[in-house]
Amino acid sequence: MKGPVLTTSDISLSMGTALLSSADLLVADEADVVVASTVAERDRIVENVVGPRTYGRGLCTPPLSPGAAAFVLEHERDGREALCVLHDYQDGTNLSDWVSSEPPAEPALVVLPRPSADWDEALDRSPWRAVKRLVTSRRAGSNEASLAVALGAGIAALARGGARAVLVVDHWREPSGPAPSAPARWAAFTFVKADA
Amino acid sequence: MRLLLSGARAQSKVTLFDVSELRAQLAAEIAGFRVEDVAPLGAAGKWSRSDALALVAAREALTEARVAPTDPVDLIVGGTTGGLFVTEAKIASLHKPLAAGGETAEKALAEAYSDEALRSHPVSATADRLFETVHRFRRTRTVCSACSSSANAIALADAWIRAGKSKLVLAGGTDALARLTFVGFNLLQAMDPAPCRPFDVKRMGMNLGEAAAFLLLESEESARARGVSPIAELAGWAIGSEAHHITNPEAAGTTASRLMRAALGRGGLSPADVGYVNAHGTATPHNDRMESAALNEVFGERLSDVYISSSKGQLGHTLGAAGAVEAAITALSLADRELPPTAGLEEPDPALAALKHVRGKGVAHRARAALSSSFGFGGSNTVLALTEPGLFERPAEGGSRRRRIVVTASTVLGPEGVHNNADVARYLEGTPGENVGASSAESLAKSLDVERARRLDRGGALVTAINGRALDAAGIERAADTSRLGMVCGIAFRREEDFAAFLWPILEKGFRAGKPAVFPICFCRRPPGTRRSTWA
């Protein structure tokens, strides 16, 4: 890899910001292909000390295991088969800034890496309110790589044909205090079948 | 700038921690700077030195740029050490209890959890502290690519503005001195015991420094609408990886020269337009040789017309902050039409290409266009091209903005093993399957070329292997030209148990107990540069 190579490091959302930055680099025409990836290892200091201190107590939950993922992103080309299209991607610090529009295709699915009251509230106010929501942490656990599992599972739902549009979302707020003064960040990715 | 132009130097013996056993003891430490003088009252306990440095720089940049509290500003922070200076000893102290195991380990982990200072440990803590105190930023991002971190922050800011995502972006970096980096670079023999001498025949390595710098970026239209005058224009940038070696740069500077040309090309500039280069210029034998070769390749016969200087002879190498510090110096040099010198350069190395160095004191010169280069540890390189505002026409954007982005492969290592594409759907089902994640991780890591992967830590091996799997699944040929193939890896933490194991002997037995080969994988949250070479 001799193209742009860098790390994003945004507590709880590092996979999401890696995917966002990969898309930014493609749009800026700095690369033809970007692999958005993540890795989280089993580590007692992270799981018991710095993780809970910075994520909040609930983030490192079983089943714990190493986690890693890689998603290959490129510009759409004639004749090149794709799993799906990255239809929309947004992020921010205040979840009320999320601009939601109608699901771009039906059936649709929402995938969350872990339960989120903030996202449930935002989704309930949006055109996605009636769309089925699935949470991957019940089977994959919850750690820094959890969003990667949710992204992979959402993309897989499109590849299997169970959905034609998938919204994958995540949100973190520093455990120190309430919104809007506590630092926070969120990301939302909408994928659609390539023919949608 | 006045001090820089005078040739003043900031290096002195480090006072933040004991360096008496080390060969090189100098750094450009910010004397008298105290977190408690900067952090909000009662909050200093969760603030790192890097956070506090960032607050000073970020607040001043927003004030200088006349940004109102209600303006929609996004933030990108580049950094490598984060809160290490305050947390490294605490984390290292866990090594022995963890090795003892049982109740001793549990007790030590529980006690460590109560330490408020550990909240400053992640590099993204700086963005969070700035969100609390400087501005309610609309979005925040933290990037880490060793010494090019904050140059990448600036490049991404440009991408956001041009894509219409952002109106105003505060981009920069911060890095405070820490024992890990100071000892690590000493162990690698990369530090000069004397004030460093970039491009000098007697150069022996760098001095570290600490700093924070932020630049407010916006479109020309936005600046005009707000009634502010731009200092300089960010005409172009280019980011690339050498895929060469975990610490040493390519001798011929092939990637560096490619990126200089690409940054100029993005801005519609040619080498003939450039009057100044703020070099990476670390004063290590390897970097300065590589960078001279790259400059010679790009400028050729014009090399003798282009002023070159390195700010590291005055400020030391400020690692994750260096890209932004030097971009700011480059911008001010264009605006003020005065170029700072390379302090410490007495006798240019005759073995290097003949560069037109600024020596002693600054020179008055209208450069019109300039480059600022950042060549990071592990070969993570970025070049920024800056010009006087409005002087050059930037070419129209290509068609990338209108093309759809597709996902052509998805590979996930989760508790149930390694799966590609449609098989990852298993995590949508409620019933847990067989938990085989750990053994799958081992087999995945072992799938690498052992010889080329021997210096990778386990996390580096995992992410390298999974990248390879995904590229295979996407049908991308490994032998293809990889200059347009990139990677962005999201990592919040290094493996802290490995870090504790590296640092504990140093704290307990002294600096000689450190293992130089381990340092690069502890440094800056394992930049992807340390792992990408195995696949490439």
Identify the notable features of this structure and list them briefly:
heterodimer, A: 196 residues, alpha/beta, Peroxisomal Thiolase, Chain A, domain 1, 27% helix, B: 536 residues, 2 domains, 6-stranded mixed sheet, 4-stranded mixed sheet, 18 helices, 34% helix, disordered C terminus
| SSE pattern of chain A | EHEHEEEHEHHEE
Number of domains of chain A: 1
Largest sheet of chain B: 6 strands, mixed
Mean pLDDT of chain A: 93
Overall geometry of chain A? globular
- CA-atom Rg of chain A in angstroms: 16 Å
| Assembly context of the chains | heterodimer
Can you count the beta strands of chain A? Answer: 8
- Spatial strand arrangement across the major sheet of chain A: 4-8-7-5-6
Q: Given this structure, which CATH class of chain A is correct?
A: Alpha Beta
Provide the helix percentage of chain A.
25-40%
The secondary-structure class of chain B comes to alpha/beta
Using the 3D structure, state the CATH architecture of chain A: 3-Layer(aba) Sandwich
User: Which sequence of strands runs across the widest sheet of chain B?
Assistant: 8-15-14-9-10-12
CATH architecture of the largest domain in chain B: 3-Layer(aba) Sandwich
Rg of chain B (CA only): 23 Å
Descriptive report:
A five-stranded mixed beta sheet of chain A has the order 4-8-7-5-6, with helices on one face. Chain A has helices at 14-27, 44-55, 117-124, 137-140, 146-160; strands at 5-8, 33-40, 67-75, 84-92, 108-112, 133-135, 165-173, 184-192. In chain A, 27% of the residues lie in helices and 29% in strands. The longest helix of chain A is centred in the last third of the chain and has 15 residues, at 146-160. Chain A has 196 residues and is of the alpha/beta class. Chain A has one domain: Thiolase/Chalcone synthase (Peroxisomal Thiolase, Chain A, domain 1). Chain B starts with a helix and ends with a helix. Chain B has 18 helices and 18 strands. A six-stranded mixed beta sheet of chain B has the order 8-15-14-9-10-12, with helices on both faces. In chain B, strands 4-3-5-7 form a four-stranded mixed beta sheet, with helices on both faces. In chain B, strands 1-2-6 form a three-stranded mixed beta sheet. Chain B is an alpha/beta fold and 536 residues long. Chains A and B meet through strand 1, helix 1, strand 2, helix 2 and strand 3 of A and helix 5, helix 6, strand 4, helix 7 and strand 8 of B. Strand 1 of chain A pairs parallel with strand 18 (485-490) of chain B, so a sheet runs across the interface.
